[in-house]
Amino acid sequence: MKTSKMKFGINYVDTKSPLHGLNGITKFALLMAWITVVLTTFDLRIIVVMILLGLTLLKTTGVAFQVYKPLLLGTLSVLTTNAIFMFAVAPQQGSEVLGTTTELMTLPGNYTLTQETLYYLCTVTLKYFSMFPIALVFVFTTHPTEFASSLNRVGVPYKIAYAVSLTLRYLPEVKNDFVNIMHAQQARGVDFSKNAPLMDRFRGVTKILIPLIFSSLDRADEISNAMTLRGFGRYNSRTWYNQRVLTSKDWGVLAILALGVTLALIKRNADTVMMWYPFG
C-alpha cells in the first residue's frame, strides 16, 4: 500500500517579504480588521474585492503555492459541504432573505433550487472563504515570539502573550505528530486512500486523532513543568528576545485599517437591505 505524504505547513516562513517587516501587532490588527469588515457585509462586490486582495497579499508573502495548496483545497471542500448542508436544512433561505423567488430546478423531496438561494449560498461561501488568505498571511509572516512581545508591549499580560506564542510555535509540531501517527497507522494496514470506503476513512481518522490528543496533552504537561522549574510567572514583567517597535510604516497601515473598518461600519448602518442583489 502506498504511503501518502503531507507537504503543507501552517507555520512562520521567513521569506523576507515586505509583510514580514511589519510589526506583529500591525498584522494582528490587519487580521482583526479584515474579519470585522467581512462579518459586517453581505455585499458580494466587497467580498470579491477582499478575496482578490487577500490572495494578492498571500502571494506577496513569497510562500510557495504548494505549501498551502492542500489547505486551500481542504477549505474549499469544507465550505462546499457547508453550503450543501445549509441548502438541505433551509432550501428557501435565499428567497426569504431577498424577498423574491425565481425557480431554477425542482429536486426530489419538495426541494426547489431558486436563483435567490443559489446566490445566497455563493455569497455566504465566498464570505467565509475571504478570511482564509489573510489568516495564512498572518501565520506565515508573524514570528510567534515577536508577536507575543508586541502583545505584551500594548498591555496584554505576558502570560497570555506567551500562551499565544506557544500556540503558534507548536502548530507545526502538531502537524508533524499527525503525519507520524498517520504513517504508523498505515504501517498497521489502515487505508486512508480514496480507494477505502468513506466510513473506513472516518474510523481511520479517529485512530489518528485519539493518539494525537494524548501526545499533545503530554507535550503540554512537559512544557508546563519546564516553565515552572524555570520560575515562569514569578515576576510581574519580563524581557523578550524578539522585540520590535512600531515604525511609521506600521502606523500608516494601522491608520488605513482604522479607516477601512470605520467605512465598513458606516456602510452597514446605512444599508437598508441585508444583502446586495443585482438581479432584483
Automatic annotation (TrEMBL):
Pfam families in alphabetical order: CbiQ
InterPro entries xref list: ABC/ECF_trnsptr_transmembrane (IPR003339)
Leader sequence segment: none
Residues spanning the membrane: 28-58, 70-90, 118-140, 251-270
Membrane topology: Multi-pass membrane protein
Domain of life: Bacteria
Subcellular localization(s) per the UniProt record: Membrane
Keywords: Membrane, Transmembrane, Transmembrane helix
Recorded family membership: Belongs to the CbiQ family.
Name this polypeptide is given: Energy-coupling factor transporter transmembrane protein EcfT
Organism expressing this protein natively: Enterovibrio qingdaonensis
